[in-house]
Amino acid sequence: MSSSGRTWRGFAAGAALVAAACGESAGPAPTLSNPQQLSSDLQTVGNVFQTPPFQSFAALATVPGSPVAASAPAGALLSAARVAAPQPYADAPAQLQVLRSAASALSSRLTAQVIPPDLWGKTFVWDVNTHQYAVGADPGPSTGVRIILYQVDANGAVIEPPQAVGFVDLVDQSSGNTNQVHVTVQGGRPGSAGTTYADYVVSATVVTSGTGAVSEFTATALGSVSDGTRTLHFNAAFHATNLDTDNPDAQVDVTWDLDHPAVSVALHETLTTPDADHVNLTIDFSVTRGGETVRLTGTVSVVVSTQSVTADLTVYVNGATFARISGTDATIQARHPNGSALSQDEEAAIVQMFVLPDRLVEAIEQLFHPAEHFLGA
């Protein structure tokens, strides 16, 4: 987890703890229909990523000999697209840096393949003699690369003797001025595939100014993740402008839809930079389950030099104000609009409204890292 993610999760928990000690009831307070179930459903969304094939897939970032374990100068498409998922809102300065790096890396390679042609048609397998990945004898996808996935320990190291749990195919679909990669993670073996645990496409384009500098960047990510029982569909778009200035702006729109239980998560976020040391975010983050929609809206301002965070947010339940979260850093408080304290279950549910974005962005980083390697991230 990133340090900013830990900061945001701690900020959320701290706000809830302050809320528990604040205020006396001044009349009937709005309620969540079932805060415990809301917390459980939000956790279920994040738990879709805990299968052995997905955990092995995530470990490819650091496993020795993995063809995606270290960066290569071929662009940064997926590095930018990964921040199009719900994210810790306090991470705004890092988002801008990722975006600029991605746009710059892609600008000179829009007509080239994302995956180097010398890797096309190859399959990487685990070599027990060298204790790392190596090119195997079996063929891979004709315009991409295949990696066999093995059971890993809690640290992401391949357990020997190796036990295959699936495979991942990364297929280059770039065309014209669009870089695009199709990624599939499956159980079983090539030729006898089992459950599909991830299936998504990421693409990006850049626009340059008259001086040749990158001024705009657009990235999209579309697909699904599954644990074999539940499927989580996602659709994300990320658009940034003024990248050739000290005041870039960006907009994020993303939806996540879980089939069982039926839970929909949506985020609309705009990011503006009035100057080099300040980032302002406008947030609209909602979770819908059954007949209830819990919505978090408002603004978060970040001072880049000090990482100070000021929040002015409101939580709504089916359109009615449920809680307000406001303050700066340690003074941030959450309470009902009548000043009454949130119950323990309500606090836990609100904290999950912050924890879920943190967990999802970790999963997005795991999803996109193998292709990020080819994109220079």
Helix count, DSSP H or I runs of 4 or more residues: 6
> What is the overall silhouette?
globular
Strand residue percentage: 35-45%
State the low-pLDDT regions, or none: 1-26, 70-90, 106-111
When the domains are counted, the total is 1
**Percent range of helical residues:** 10-25%
Please summarize the sheet with the most strands: 15 strands, mixed
Radius of gyration: 22 Å
The secondary-structure class comes to alpha+beta
Separation of the first and last Cα atoms? 17 Å
Sheet with the most strands: spatial strand order: 2-1-3-4-5-6-7-8-9-10-11-12-13-14-15
Number of strands: 15
The succession of helices and strands, N to C, reads: HHHHHEEEEEEEEEEEEEEEH
Summed over residues and divided by their number, the pLDDT gives a mean of: 76
Short précis:
By secondary structure, the protein is α+β, with helices and mostly antiparallel strands. It has helices spanning 3-20, 35-47, 52-59, 77-81, 92-107, 344-374, and strands spanning 122-127, 132-139, 144-150, 164-172, 179-189, 192-208, 214-226, 231-241, 249-258, 263-275, 278-289, 292-303, 308-317, 320-328, 333-335.
Task: Describe what you observe in this structure.
It is a single chain. The model is unreliable at 1-26, 70-90 and 106-111 (pLDDT under 50). α3 crosses α6. The protein has helices at 3-20, 35-47, 52-59, 77-81, 92-107, 344-374; strands at 122-127, 132-139, 144-150, 164-172, 179-189, 192-208, 214-226, 231-241, 249-258, 263-275, 278-289, 292-303, 308-317, 320-328, 333-335. The protein is built from six helices and 15 strands. It starts with a helix and ends with a helix. It has one domain (3-370).
